[in-house]
Amino acid sequence: MRRGSGNVMSKSPRSQVKIILLLSVTLVLGGSLWKGLERFFHVEIEGAITPPIDAKDEADRLIQTASQNFFYHEFDLAVENYNKAITLFEKRKNFKRAARIYESIGDLYKFSNDSKDAQEAYQLAIDYHHKLHDKIGEGRAMKRIGDLHMERARLDKAGEWFGKATLAVQDAEPHIVKAKIYESQGHYFLKTEQVPKALIAFQKAKETFDKIGNPLGYDNISPMIQKLKHRQKSELN
To answer: Where are the domains of the chain?
Structure first.
C-alpha cells in the first residue's frame, strides 16, 4: 500500500475489516452503539465496552485485541487480553471499567457455552459494582446470570437471579437497564405460568421505559401487557 495516496479504495479493506469486527463484537456482546442513536433508542453508553477503532490507550488497545480474538473464536487469547486490560484499569483505580470488562468476559464464556466460568465472571462484576455502590451495574450483571440460566432452561436459578436484579435496582433512578431487568423478569414469570406476576413486571418495565423516554421499549412491551390483561379477563370469565 502506498503512503500518502489519495486513493480511498487502497485504504478501505483494512478499515472495513476493523469496522466489521467492531460491529460484530458489539452486536454479540451487547456493547454500546453510536451516541447518535442514543436519543431515539436510549442506548446505554455508560462505560462503553468496545473502545474506538485504533485506540491510543494501552488498555483500550487490549480490549480491541480481545474483541478481535473473540471474533476469530480465539477465546483463551481474548480472556488473556481482557485480564491484562483489567490489571491496567485496577492500577489506575478505574474499577468501573474493570467491572464492565468482567461482564464482557462473562459474555464471552456464555457464548462459548462455558456456563460455570461465565457465572464466575459475572459474579466478579457484581462484587465490583457492589463495592462501587453501582446499583445499575450490579443489577445488569445479575440479569446476565439470570439470562444465562434462562437460556439453558434452568428456570429456578433464572428466577432467583432476576429477583436479585430487581432488588438491586428497585431504588435506583429510571434507567434502560432497570427497564430491561423488569422485562426479563416478566418473560420468566410468563414462561413459568405466573401470569399475574408477569403482568406486574411488564408494567414496571413499561413505566420505566416511559420515564426514560424510550418509545421503542414502551411500544414493544405495550402489546404484551394488553395480551396478558385480556388473558386474565378471559380466565376470570
So the answer is: 158-221
